[in-house]
Q: What sequence folds into this?
């Protein structure tokens, strides 16, 4: 399973990496996406990342510490700036809670607030939990198989199956053939107009695995704005269990 | 009082002898009564219109819902099936059915509407398309496409502001997200079949109508509804219907599973607005009739002064001062009674004849006037309530009586010898 790429899933990127030897074209697009999917999936991880948010009017940077387990549990705690340090978000199953240390309050994000921007970024609360099950929800078609800028890539078009609760008209997805690294995902509306682009770059070894360490989210209608997530450290298969992703942990101020 | 017949005859004779003065005084009262009727029927028409728009946009003249629904608007606070069946049985019973124009059961949840262009908070109202079309007004406010139809499944009817914000057009994908019956967040794809403009910003930017059956599948709530709205023909019937429903539903109400709410409770701002407006109107009528009253005092008093010698002669012939006063009082009363009836009948008839189809105020208040989330139609149809006729007649009679008292006292107190001294 693959989520709409998010800050948190990036933490899980590159877990369960399949061997490059398997990366051959004699797989169906569904199987390839399933493998990319497995690349993006993790058992557990812990890392530190910077989130750089650029809008028309302001720019800011947050440093965050992240934990994740599988696809259902994650926790993000802001480390800096000092004004917001301790602010934390817990995602468990499909619920989100925010903890605000200044007022010592935990807020469960209601369905109607899921559209709100997460920490002022271009990610919404909904982005954090939305599970678009690519294999189940989309018809996947291989659109291109060959070299782009000297790199062998696949390009897929993912079209939502009828009646699936997905806003996109289709998603275009470019994946590097050699190691199943995603390059970008482009989200289109039904009129074929680009709505937003998620770019992956700086593929580096972190925690013993190759992962895209930079993710940029660019809204199409505001090309001058973006949110970048840059991973500084990552470790995998850490020692956490379900009980870690609890409201008690959320409210720990450290 | 003795010789009542004589006194009344005297009073009528006096009125007839001074026909011009009588007609002048009477016409002041006729105009007053006519104006009162015109203004009352228009005021009542306005309020009925406010109430009607308000309840159609809102929860109905009478709403049956879970007691906690109004404050939390959560899916878990929905009506149990037993309560819904009971409500529907009551609404079908002949006594109640005669008053009820229409009823619409709906499931309302708050959630989010998202498209490729973004996401907005939304109030999602799942309805039976036919019942809701009869109940609400929003189905007539389509600017593009159409309202929901019975065979629709993945359909949504959205406001123009929301459509703009989410870049929606007809047939656009729209994903609705809300908490389902298991308290899980669930998404549902729908397609826009129609776009409306109600004129109320809060509604245009957030209210989405969708078929109830689809919502039941999506939210796992089956046939359940959160509220049932009932409309009646005349808002005056509301309190009676509320009492009937409360009596019929006493079991679910006692168990805290249902509540019956009249529009005054459901929309206190609207109830207050009607009360304030009524008060303002009464104040104006009061002032109007004080002025008319002074006119009556003036003419009756003048007639008394003018007839000093007459009254003197009457008293010399044996009428007591009280009887003399009574003659004047009878004059005033009969004049008032006749002119009140004529005035009110004439006012009601003219209002009905000229403005029966509605009086267009759009020049004065613009095409769209909204008031606490309710669009007010600028065309006002006067409403004639029997109770208003009775009230008006009583009111005018009261003013006429009060205005005749002082002249009557004057007439009673004349000095017989002084008044007969000179032949004027």
A:
């Amino acid at each position: 399973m693959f989520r709409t790429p998010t800050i948190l899933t990036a933490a899980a990127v590159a877990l369960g990496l399949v061997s490059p030897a398997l990366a051959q074209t004699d797989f169906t697009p569904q199987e390839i996406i399933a493998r990319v999917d497995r690349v993006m999936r993790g058992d557990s991880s812990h890392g530190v990342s910077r989130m750089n948010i650029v809008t028309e009017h302001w720019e800011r940077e947050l440093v965050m510490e992240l934990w994740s387990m599988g696809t259902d549990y994650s926790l993000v705690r802001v480390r800096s700036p000092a004004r917001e340090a301790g602010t934390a978000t817990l995602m468990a199953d499909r619920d989100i809670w925010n903890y605000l240390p200044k007022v010592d309050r935990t807020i469960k994000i209601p369905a109607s607030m899921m559209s709100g921007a997460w920490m002022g970024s271009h990610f919404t609360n909904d982005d954090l939990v939305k599970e678009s099950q690519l294999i189940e929800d989309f018809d996947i078609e291989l659109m291109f198989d060959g070299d782009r800028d000297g790199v062998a890539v696949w390009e897929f078009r993912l079209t939502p199956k009828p009646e699936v609760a997905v806003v996109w008209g289709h998603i275009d997805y470019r994946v590097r053939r050699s190691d199943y690294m995603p390059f970008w995902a482009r989200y289109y509306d039904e009129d074929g107009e680009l709505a937003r682009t998620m770019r992956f770059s700086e593929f580096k070894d972190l925690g013993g695995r190759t992962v895209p360490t930079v993710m940029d989210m660019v809204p199409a209608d505001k090309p001058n704005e973006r949110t970048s997530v840059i991973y500084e450290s990552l470790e995998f298969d850490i020692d956490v269990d379900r009980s870690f992703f609890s409201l008690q942990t959320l409210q720990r101020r450290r | 009082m003795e010789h009542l017949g004589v006194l009344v005859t005297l009073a009528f004779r006096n009125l007839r002898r001074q026909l011009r003065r009588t007609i002048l005084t009477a016409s002041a009262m006729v105009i007053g009564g006519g104006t009162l009727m015109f203004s009352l029927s228009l005021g009542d028409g306005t309020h009925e219109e406010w109430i009607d728009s308000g309840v159609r946009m809102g929860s109905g003249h009478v709403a049956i819902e879970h007691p906690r629904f109004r404050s939390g608007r959560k899916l878990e606070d929905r009506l149990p099936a037993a309560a819904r069946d009971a409500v529907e049985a009551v609404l079908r019973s002949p006594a109640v059915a005669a008053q009820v124009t229409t009823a619409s059961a709906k499931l309302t949840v708050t959630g989010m509407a998202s498209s490729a262009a973004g996401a907005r908070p939304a109030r999602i109202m799942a309805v039976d398309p036919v019942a809701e079309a009869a109940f609400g007004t929003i189905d007539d406010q389509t600017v593009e496409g159409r309202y929901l139809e019975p065979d629709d499944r993945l359909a949504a009817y959205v406001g123009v502001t929301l459509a703009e914000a989410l870049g929606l057009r007809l047939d656009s994908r729209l994903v609705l997200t809300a908490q389902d019956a298991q308290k899980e967040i669930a998404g549902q794809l729908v397609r826009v079949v129609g776009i409306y403009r109600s004129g109320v910003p809060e509604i245009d930017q957030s209210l989405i109508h969708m078929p109830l059956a689809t919502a039941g599948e999506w939210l796992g709530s089956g046939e359940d509804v959160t509220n049932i709205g009932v409309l009646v023909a005349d808002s005056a019937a509301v309190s009676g219907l509320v009492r009937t429903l409360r009596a019929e539903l006493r079991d679910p109400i006692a168990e805290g599973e249902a509540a019956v709410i009249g529009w005054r409770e459901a929309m206190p701002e609207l109830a207050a607005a009607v009360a304030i407006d009524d008060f303002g109107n009464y104040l104006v009528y009061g002032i109007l009739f004080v002025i008319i009253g002074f006119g009556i005092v003036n003419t009756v008093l003048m007639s008394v002064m003018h007839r000093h010698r007459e009254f003197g002669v009457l008293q010399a012939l044996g009428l007591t001062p009280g009887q003399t006063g009574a003659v004047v009082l009878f004059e005033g009363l009969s004049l008032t009674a006749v002119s009140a009836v004529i005035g009110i009948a004439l006012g009601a008839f003219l209002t009905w004849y000229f403005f029966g189809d509605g009086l267009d105020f759009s020049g004065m208040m613009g095409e769209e006037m909204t008031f606490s989330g309710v669009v007010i139609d600028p065309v006002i149809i006067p409403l004639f309530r029997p109770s208003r006729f009775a009230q008006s007649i009583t009111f005018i009679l009261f003013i006429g009586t009060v205005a005749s008292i002082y002249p009557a006292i004057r007439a009673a107190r004349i000095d017989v010898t002084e008044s007969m001294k000179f032949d004027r």
The mean pLDDT of chain A is 79. The first strand of chain A starts at residue 44 and ends at 54.
